[in-house]
Amino acid sequence: MTVEDKIVKTIDLQATVDRVWRAVTDHNEFGEWFRVALEKPFAVGEQTAGNITYPGYEHMRLEAMVKTMDTNTLFAFTWSPIPDESGNAPLGGMETLVEFKFEAIESGTRLTIIESGFAALPSDVDRTEALHRNAEGWEIQTQNIAAHVES
Q: Which pTM was predicted?
């Protein structure tokens, strides 16, 4: 069975590229719409982590390793798409790449979010379930960022 390798979500936002870039790459703003309390700013080659702030999930932690920050163009990090038995998603083994691509359009910004690497996850992991769960998550997060930058 072939596993799909990536999720692609695109949303047109009524906000400038600068505004959307800040909402995605400033760790405090990211935390507001993504619902995670990140402990330190995003920086290329560095890890940041924090507890989820969504009600009922506060016990869970997210870790991310920043790979790219090309101002107003591309922001990328790796993370684990699969929580462990405690609900945390630690780095160090099973990781996918999350990319945010920014494009100026007449009405504001086209934001494309791509999460890839599902096919490379270990075979004992339900890769299809991980992809499906994260696709649903990105659907919610695109609405969250829209509400955040368009308010």
A: 0.92
- Looking up tokens 């790979």, which residue turns up? 67
Among left, alpha and beta (phi > 0; psi -120 to 50; other), residue 45 is: left
- Using an 8 Å Cβ cutoff, are 81 and 134 in contact? yes
Q: What is the pLDDT of residue 86?
A: 67
pLDDT for 114: 97
Are 5 and 118 a contacting pair, CB within 8 Å? yes
- Domain with 36 in it: 6-149
Give the integer Cα–Cα distance in Å for 88 and 58. 10
Q: Does 99 or 92 have the greater pLDDT score?
A: 99
Residue 150, C-beta contacts closer than 8 angstroms, at least 6 positions apart? 13, 14, 15
Residue 1 lies in a domain: no
What's the rounded mean pLDDT across residues 5-9?
94
> Is residue 11 included in any domain, yes or no?
yes
